[in-house]
């Protein structure tokens, strides 16, 4: 009996150690104006083992989807994707103009300084689902955690008229 108990405990402990984890870094949500009904969430995901982001949920939105922005015939198009494959130890950037989590049918405005609860749903290599809950800071329109604004130097001021 004692041997069976020890074997069972070792098996449970080993499976807990083998569980896939996903490191979430630099997460942020773009702030909205009061009439806006959608926004994006962006972050870097790095899994400990091969995994797949298959869904997301948030109480601030009626609908949450994984989206891709891509050029199609010289037109930037956004579309829902069924999931994103994550390679073990390799970071995948969810960023403006690329893959991102779309928060739609917003129930309220999200403002800079707020925090949005977001549940990410993953599948491991064995198709077992696991979730990760994060609090994502909201970046005010035009500033904050998001990518630095692009600087355009058109040569103005560097020459005399």
List keywords for this structure.
single chain, 161 residues, 49% strand, disordered C terminus
* Spatial shape: globular
The radius of gyration is 21 Å
- The overall pLDDT, averaged over residues, is 83
> How large is the share of residues in beta strands?
over 45%
Helix content: under 10%
In oligomeric terms, what are we looking at?
single chain
- Main sheet: strands, sense, barrel: 10 strands, mixed
Cα(first) to Cα(last) distance is: 93 Å
Structural class: mainly beta
**What's the β-strand tally?**
10
Unreliable sequence segments = 4-17, 144-161
The SSE order reads: HEEEEEEEEEE
Number of helices: 1
Gist of the model:
The protein is mainly beta and 161 residues long.
Walkthrough of the structure:
Helix content is 10%, strand content 49%. The protein has 161 residues and is mainly beta. Strands 1, 2, 3, 4, 5, 6, 7, 8, 9 and 10 form a 10-stranded mixed β-sheet that branches.
Explain the layout of strands and helices.
Layout (H helix, E strand, L loop, with lengths): L1 H16 L4 E9 L7 E10 L3 E7 L3 E12 L2 E6 L3 E3 L5 E3 L4 E8 L8 E10 L4 E11 L22
Parallel strand pairs: 1-10
Antiparallel strand pairs: 1-2, 2-7, 2-8, 3-6, 3-9, 4-5, 4-8, 9-10
């Amino acid at each position: 009996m004692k041997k069976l108990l020890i074997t069972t405990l070792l098996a449970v402990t080993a499976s807990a150690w083998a569980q896939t984890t996903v490191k979430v870094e630099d997460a942020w949500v773009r702030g909205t104006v009061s009439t806006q009904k959608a926004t994006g969430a962006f972050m870097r995901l790095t899994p400990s083992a091969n995994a797949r982001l298959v869904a997301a949920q948030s109480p601030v939105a009626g609908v949450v989807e994984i989206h891709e922005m891509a050029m199609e015939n010289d037109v930037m198009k956004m579309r829902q994707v069924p999931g994103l494959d994550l390679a073990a130890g390799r970071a995948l950037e969810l960023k403006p103009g690329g893959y991102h989590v779309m928060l739609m049918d917003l129930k309220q405005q999200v403002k800079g300084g707020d925090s949005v609860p977001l549940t990410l749903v993953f599948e491991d290599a064995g198709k077992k689902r696991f979730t990760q809950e994060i609090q994502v800071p909201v970046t005010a329109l035009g500033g904050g955690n998001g990518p630095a604004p692009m600087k355009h130097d058109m040569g103005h001021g560097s020459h005399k008229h």
